[in-house]
Specification:
7-stranded antiparallel β-sheet, globular, alpha+beta, disordered N terminus, 16 strands, Jelly Rolls, disordered C terminus, 19% helix
């Protein structure tokens, strides 16, 4: 007799296979396609370490992004992705004003034949060098910086610390790292059968407010893709929360191995202001589940 978990895994795999067949019907470049989702809840965790100091010089809001184009296309699992990141330099960099691609949608994804700059929406204006633009098929992205954990994000003021729920939605897989040193929290999700879209929910308690290092690795092998980094904060009663607001993220070069030149950071700051204004003109990042 199958256990409850075995039945759940079988059902999840069956759903993913059906979705994969549906996704395979969409092959036109730059096509946005509807998606179904798989919801996964990880264990609750507590960050006991201290926050890090604020950057000594001004940095733009958002996260620093890097892009790697993998040829031949072969990035089906997280372990191989992390090996590629360790062994290679990025092909391009950009500033992510919010991890929400495609922009303003919780229920769609891009066909993997879409160009990266189109996938990034307004943030594609900061993509450099321009000649590194490629399709999303066989791509690896990193988003790094700092996240500002404040009292206003607390979901339950009656308990110790600041309680939040982070939600990462991705197709294909991802790895989210919070904190550093001995207190590093790592949440990861390899693609399920046929690389269906997953949402992973993680309840995190921070014992202290302040800035914490953050890194989100995300990758796409083929077919369709999308990535969202959201959270359930404060009195929010929605099922999947809101995209992490730009004002809570800092694109600090102090937290990545390769520090951009000052001129590059100034250029990113200029472009990020224009990209953020473009996003705000479309919609504020206050989406809730219908």
């Amino acid at each position: 007799m199958k256990t409850k978990n075995q039945k759940l895994n079988l059902l999840t795999s069956s759903i993913a296979i059906v979705l994969g067949l549906i996704f395979a019907e969409s092959t036109n470049a730059q096509e946005i396609v509807p998606i179904e989702e798989l919801f996964i809840t990880s264990e609750s965790v507590t960050i006991t370490g201290d926050p890090v100091p604020a950057p000594l010089t001004p940095v733009p809001n958002g996260l620093l992004g890097t892009f790697r184009d993998v040829e031949p296309v072969d990035v089906p699992f997280l372990n191989s992705v992390l090996d590629i990141i360790e062994a290679t330099e990025p092909d391009a960099t950009f500033l992510s004003t919010a991890v929400d691609y495609p922009l303003e949608s919780f229920v769609t994804a891009f066909n993997s034949n879409t160009l990266v700059t189109e996938f990034l929406g307004p943030d594609g204006d900061s993509f450099t060098p321009a000649e590194a633009d490629a399709t999303l098929e066989g791509s690896i992205f990193e988003f790094t910086g700092l996240i500002d954990i404040t009292e206003e994000l607390d979901q339950d003021s009656s308990t110790e610390g600041i309680n939040v729920t982070f939600v990462v939605g991705s197709d294909d897989g991802f790895q989210l790292s919070l904190g550093d040193g001995d207190d590093l929290l790592v949440i990861s999700q390899d693609p399920t059968a046929n690389n269906a879209f997953n949402r992973v929910f993680t309840e995190v308690t921070f014992l202290q407010p302040g800035l914490y290092p953050i890194e989100l690795v995300y990758f796409e092998n083929d077919v369709v893709t999308g990535i969202e980094f959201s959270g359930i904060f404060g009195d929010d009663s929605s099922d999947i929360g809101i995209i992490i607001p730009n004002g809570f993220l800092l694109a600090s070069p102090l937290e990545i191995e390769t520090t951009p030149e000052p001129t590059s950071m100034l250029a990113l700051l200029f472009v990020s202001t224009a990209a953020l204004a473009s996003r705000q003109n479309k919609n504020k990042h206050t989406k809730s589940c219908k």
